[in-house]
Amino acid sequence: xxxxxxxxxxxxxxxxSPKHYTSSQVVDIRGKLFMVDCGEGTQIQxxxxxxxFARINHIFISHLxxxxxxxxxxMVSTFGLLGRTAPLFIHAPGQLWSILEKELAFYYPxxxxxxxxxxxxxxxxxxxxDDRSLTVTAFPLKHRIPCAGxxxxxxxxxxxxxxxxxxxxxxxxxxxxxxKEGGDFTTKDGTVIPHSRLTTPADPGRSYAxxxxxxxxxxxxxxxxxxxxxxxxxxxxxxxADRAKKHFHSTSVDAARSAMEAGAQRLxxxxxxxxxxxxxxxxxxxxxxFPNTVxxxxxxxxxx
Amino acid sequence: xxxxxxxxxxxxxxxxSPKHYTSSQVVDIRGKLFMVDCGEGTQIQxxxxxxxFARINHIFISHLxxxxxxxxxxMVSTFGLLGRTAPLFIHAPGQLWSILEKELAFYYPxxxxxxxxxxxxxxxxxxxxDDRSLTVTAFPLKHRIPCAGxxxxxxxxxxxxxxxxxxxxxxxxxxxxxxKEGGDFTTKDGTVIPHSRLTTPADPGRSYAxxxxxxxxxxxxxxxxxxxxxxxxxxxxxxxADRAKKHFHSTSVDAARSAMEAGAQRLxxxxxxxxxxxxxxxxxxxxxxFPNTVxxxxxxxxxx
Lengths: 304, 304
Known about the structure:
Two copies of one chain form a homodimer. By secondary structure, chain A is an alpha/beta fold. Chain A folds into two domains: 4-157 and 203-303, 4-Layer Sandwich (Metallo-beta-lactamase, Chain A), CATH 3.60.15.10; 160-200, no CATH class. The first copy, chain A, is 26% helix and 28% strand. The first copy, chain A, contains eleven helices and 18 strands. Chain A has a seven-stranded mixed beta sheet. In chain A, strands 7-8-9-14-15-16-17 form a seven-stranded mixed beta sheet, covered by helices on one side. The longest helix of chain A is centred in the middle third of the chain and has 12 residues, at 96-107. The model of chain A has no long low-confidence stretch (mean pLDDT 94).
C-alpha cells in the first residue's frame, strides 16, 4: 500500500502549554506533502520532525484564529532562507489575503519564490485541491468564526491485473494499462474476454478528515461518511460540556460520537485545552464510545 | 542588592534549529519585567520559564526581521486570553506600526486591553524608557536593516545612611530620607554635620547592554562604556568572518573585542547560527580574548 500518513506537529489549543504546540500537521500522500494549519512554532516543530519540508507545496488553513495561522510568516521566511524556488500554495478563507498580502509585502518584498494564495469560502463545501491521485474538500465546521474541515480523499487506483489470467488469454504486455483501466481483451480467435475476468478490483481510495476547531457538528457527517481516519477537536472532557459549547469546541464525547456517526475506522483526538495535565481522561471517555481512538501528540505519525 | 537579571528565552539566529528558539529575553529589574525582542515561539518559551509574564508591561523590538518580532501577535492574544487588562507598551522602530496596527485590527478587534505603540528611530541614540529607577536607551547597531541595541541603566539609589553616625549626632528617624538624598544635618547646638559624614555612597547603578543583531560596531562603544553585562551577536565562529560580514552579523572574536573595548564585566554570547551543533568553539574563541564570557541558552538566567 502506498504511503498515506499524518504527522502531528502541534495539537494544543489557543494558549500554548509547556506540553503542546498550537495546531499544525502534515499529511503525506504517496510522497506529496500537505500541511494543515500552521500555528506559531510550526517551523520549529518541522525542524524537529523527520518531515522533508521542502516537499510541502500546499498549506490548508482552517480558519483565521492565530493558533492556526501565526506560523505562516515565519515558515515563508525560513523556506526562503533555505533556498526554496517552488511556489507555495496557501489555501485559506479568502479574508486572510487582506492581511497576509500586506504582511508579505512588508516583511518579504524580495522573496525568491512565489506565495500563491487560493481563497475559499469556509461556509461552503468546496473541492480546494484536485490531482490525479487526490481530492481535498473543505467543508463547514461549527465554530465561533467561519471554519473549515478538510477531507483528504485518495482516488481509487486502477484495477489490478490478474497476471495468471492475462497470461492464460495471451494478453501482450503492452496492452496491460488499457486492461487495468477498464478495457476488455479480444483474443486472436475473436473471443472477447471481459475486463472483470482479467483483473481484481482496485484498492478503494483511503480518506482522512481533519475536523478542528468545531462544536459537535452533525451537518458534516454525510460529507465524511466512511472516512478511514478522523482527527477531531477534543478540547474538553465530558464534564466541561458547557465550556465546550460556549467556546464552540468539542468534548471527548462529541468527538467519539462524531467518529461513530461518520462510520470512521479510527479517531485521533486533538486540540487539547492546557487544563489537562493528564489527557488520559479524554482518551478514556472517548474510547468508551468509540474504542479505536488515540490521543494526538507532537511528532506522532499515524498511517492510514 | 536588588534584583537585576536577564532570562534568555531564545538565542538562535534566523532559521530555528532543533536546539534554539529565535531571539527573545526578559530583563527583570527590581521586579519590573521588560521583554527584549519577541521571535516566533516566545510565548511558548515564556510558559516554560519561571517568568511571571503578567508583569511584562514593556517590550522593546530591535528591528523588523521576523525572528525578532513574529512572536508579538501570539503573545498579545495569549495575554488577552489570560485576562490581561493593563496596557502593553511596544517600543519598536516606528515603521512596525504600519503593519502591526493592521494585524491587531484584523485579528483582535475586541482586545480587552490596550496595546500602545511607541515608535523610535533605530538610527539614533534615544532614551526610550525612563522611570524613577531605570533608563532604557536605544542606540544604533550595524545591521542589514536599521537595528537598535538597548542599554538598561539602573539609576543610582540614594546614599546609604551611616546609622552609627546618625545616632551619634542625634538625627531623628523622620529626617533619614532627606539626609540620604543629600541633606546635611544641623544639631541642636547649631553645628552643621555635612551629608558626607552621615552617609556612605550609593551603589552605582548597574547596567546591561543588548547588542544583537550587529556586525562589529565600534560606534556603540562610548554609549555602553563600563557596562556590567553585555549580550552580543555571536552568529559565527572566527573562520566564518566573511559570512559574518556579508550578513552584518558578528563572530566570536567581534563579540569579545566589543566587550573588551566597552570595558564590560561580563559577556553573554547569543544569536547562534544553526550550523554549530557544538557551540563551545564560539565560547573558546571569545574567552581567549575576553575570559568572563558565557554562552546564552534557553532558560538561562544571569544576575547582574
